[in-house]
Q: What sequence folds into this?
């Protein structure tokens, strides 16, 4: 039996480096685009033709310097309106890691995009303008990062050059942010004073702020330990697809393909199938290269079982002594994402949870959450675009769920409008993220 | 590495792509993989093989044939089809020109007129999901496109009206006539693709490898001298060591000077290059800043 390892002949970088996903939030004024441009530029991830285009446009606009924020301006519609309308993904790599940036605009109307970007992020990067201090927007970003279960929050206090590199200004912001973040229970919070425009503490250590003894942003991101953030305890394997070759030599083959949501699975492990409740043993775990010794998130594998049991897409394998909650009643926080029709009690939606689709009806809206203050407003009649609420749902068939804060895979769902087929809500099951 | 349960970046990307491909097959009625014979569509097909092993790839592939293919690309395409035993649909641009569905563009590019041909074939075949090899690092408009990208009755993309894509809970629900373009390689970069091709020893057209080829220099772009790009009056051919970073239409795709004759050398070269692959070699993308955005809205790949 072989162990699934990295492709043996991969270049050094690809073989040893892992993947880190981070989400940035902030408005243009915070210097977010400049920061990303700076990260790409100083880590040599920008190509000559991209830079040339930025320099040309900057010159056309009469700028004195290359406006690195232009690197992240995407669509013509945005350039024309001077806004960012959607989540943009960017990539860069260092010898230690490959980074995927989900770049989201920070305006209040784009809570939807921030939720999208944060949903898969290991790290949330929040920008604070040193001159303005902690704003309502900063609090909203921190709240959403926590709600979405992002394990690490890095606050970049930007534009330090405009406050004379003042340690006092930085410390005041740090204290204020820490104070309210404590109430949100951010698992890992750190602060870095930077100047995205000048490049201080982004890739290279700042000589203007000798009082800061932490790492520059890029080194910090390279060293963040994210492997332990994944849930390796609770085995959850949603069956995605059943592989049954239609050929003579493999007629008896039956494999359950899927992505490990959490936990570590090994051949020989006893497993319980849901919803049937039948128990069996893992005969083997396979990939296209052959059998492997174990499977852990986010591996995509094919599981073969010792006994033929009834198991199909939407079902789940777990350990007999560690099962998710099997329920048709969900208590969840939802972020509403549809601009035209609000969420109201009594409406029915399609719901997708892991690999299972069902229908869900809204039984109750308990309260709406003010994302700026964290305050609750009891008993609202409806929930509109970019609002977050705690709701009760009744689902047409049992789902196999865990609290979102314990499991970002089995605690999450989306709601889809059955008439338009649009994705209208992101849902997080279980206890609220904050400490109210 | 598996002791600490950390997946390398290539294995993470592979796992994500396989998840996406399986999700489409599980939920869509009639998926199809757009196959150009270029490196990205080859990697995508390789991943599809992995996703369903030991069963066969459970959907057909479609080649939108501009009639302007490099012969070595067609050879490679046919090797893949033979090896996998997949069904291949060929949608011919030349045939569409002959029928009057589309008209040849003055500059000889068939890039834009591929779109109606693609849409017609997809509609005729009833495909409700088309896998494309697009990557978000390629281009600004792609950086904002979803993995599951909704297309209306006319195959059009509306960047302002995209479905939110949260976690890996993809929504492929469509009405009759609508479809989804799916980009399993969204999060791969050019370097990832090459590193993976090397690591997995994937069969690609030999055009990607450097060799002594007869070329002509046109405003700094090197075009191979062949039936698609014959010498013009007054031009001088020269023999140089070149390779192709992308393989588009033979009459428009330029080569780059290179000594990279092996996959390892290509990976090293790509890691060091300072031009995006489209900026370096694709005449068709230089038309305007928003060229790709416009083509995508019309239903381009």
A:
């Amino acid at each position: 039996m072989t162990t699934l390892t990295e492709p043996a002949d991969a270049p050094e970088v690809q073989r040893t480096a892992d993947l880190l996903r981070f989400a940035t939030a902030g408005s243009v004024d915070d210097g977010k685009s400049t920061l990303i441009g700076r990260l790409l530029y100083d880590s040599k991830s920008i190509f000559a033709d991209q830079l040339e285009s930025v320099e040309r446009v900057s010159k056309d606009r009469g700028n004195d310097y290359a406006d690195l924020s232009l690197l992240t301006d995407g669509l013509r519609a945005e350039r024309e309106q001077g806004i960012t309308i959607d989540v943009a993904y960017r990539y860069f790599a260092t010898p230690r890691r490959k980074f995927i940036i989900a770049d989201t605009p920070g305006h209040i109307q784009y809570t939807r995009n921030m939720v999208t970007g944060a949903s898969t992020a290991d790290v949330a990067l929040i920008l604070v303008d040193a001159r303005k201090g902690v704003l309502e927007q900063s609090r909203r970003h921190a709240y959403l990062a926590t709600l979405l279960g992002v394990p690490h929050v890095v606050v970049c206090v930007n534009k330090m050059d405009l406050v004379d590199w003042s340690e006092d200004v930085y410390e005041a912001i740090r204290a204020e942010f820490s104070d309210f973040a404590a109430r949100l229970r951010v698992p890992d919070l750190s602060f870095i004073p930077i100047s995205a425009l000048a490049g201080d503490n982004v890739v290279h250590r700042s000589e203007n702020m000798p009082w800061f003894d932490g790492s520059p942003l890029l080194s910090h991101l390279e060293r963040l330990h994210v492997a332990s953030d994944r849930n390796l305890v609770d085995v959850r394997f949603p069956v995605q697809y059943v592989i049954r070759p239609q050929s003579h030599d493999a007629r008896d083959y039956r494999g359950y393909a899927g992505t490990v949501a959490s936990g570590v699975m090994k051949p020989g492990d006893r497993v319980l199938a849901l919803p049937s409740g039948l128990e069996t043993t893992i005969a083997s775990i396979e990939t296209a290269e052959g059998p492997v010794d174990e499977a852990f998130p986010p591996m995509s594998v094919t599981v073969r079982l010792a006994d033929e049991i009834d198991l199909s897409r939407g079902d789940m394998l777990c350990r007999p002594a560690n099962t998710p909650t099997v329920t048709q009643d969900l208590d969840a926080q939802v972020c509403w994402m549809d601009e035209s029709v609000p969420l109201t009690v009594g409406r029915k939606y399609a719901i997708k949870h892991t690999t299972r689709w069902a229908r869900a009806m809204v039984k109750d809206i308990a309260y709406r959450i003010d994302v700026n203050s964290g305050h609750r407003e009891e008993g609202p009649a409806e929930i509109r675009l970019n609002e977050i609420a705690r709701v009760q749902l009744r689902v047409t068939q049992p789902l196999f769920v865990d609290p979102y804060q314990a499991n970002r895979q089995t605690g999450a769902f989306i709601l889809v409008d059955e008439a338009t087929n649009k994705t209208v809500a992101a849902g997080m099951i279980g206890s609220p993220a904050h400490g109210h | 590495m598996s002791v600490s349960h950390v997946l390398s970046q290539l294995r993470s990307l592979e796992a994500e792509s396989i998840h996406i491909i399986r999700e489409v097959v599980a939920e869509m009625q009639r998926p199809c993989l757009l196959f150009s014979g270029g490196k990205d569509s080859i990697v995508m097909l390789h991943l599809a093989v992995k996703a369903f092993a030991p069963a066969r790839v459970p959907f057909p592939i479609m080649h939108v044939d501009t009639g302007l293919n490099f012969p070595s690309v067609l050879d490679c395409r046919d090797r893949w089809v033979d090896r996998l035993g997949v069904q291949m649909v060929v949608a011919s641009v030349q045939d569409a020109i002959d029928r009057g569905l589309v008209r040849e563009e003055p500059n000889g590019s068939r890039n834009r007129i591929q779109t109606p041909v693609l849409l017609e074939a997809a509609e005729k075949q009833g495909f409700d999901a088309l896998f494309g090899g697009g990557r978000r690092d390629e281009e600004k408009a792609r950086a904002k496109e979803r993995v599951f990208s909704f297309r209306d009755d006319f195959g059009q993309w509306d960047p302002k009206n995209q479905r939110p894509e949260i976690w890996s809970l993809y929504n492929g629900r469509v009405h009759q006539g609508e479809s989804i373009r799916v980009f399993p390689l969204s999060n791969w970069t050019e370097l990832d693709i090459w590193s993976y091709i090397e690591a997995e020893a994937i069969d690609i057209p030999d055009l990607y490898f450097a060799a002594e080829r007869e070329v002509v220099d046109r405003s700094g772009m090197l075009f191979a001298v062949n039936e698609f790009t014959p010498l013009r009056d007054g031009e001088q051919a020269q023999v140089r060591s070149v390779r192709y970073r992308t393989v588009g239409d033979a009459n428009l795709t330029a080569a780059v000077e290179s000594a990279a004759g092996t996959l390892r050398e290509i990976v090293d070269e790509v890691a060091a290059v300072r031009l995006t692959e489209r900026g370096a070699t694709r005449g068709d993308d230089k038309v305007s800043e928003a060229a790709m955005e416009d083509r995508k809205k019309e239903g381009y790949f």
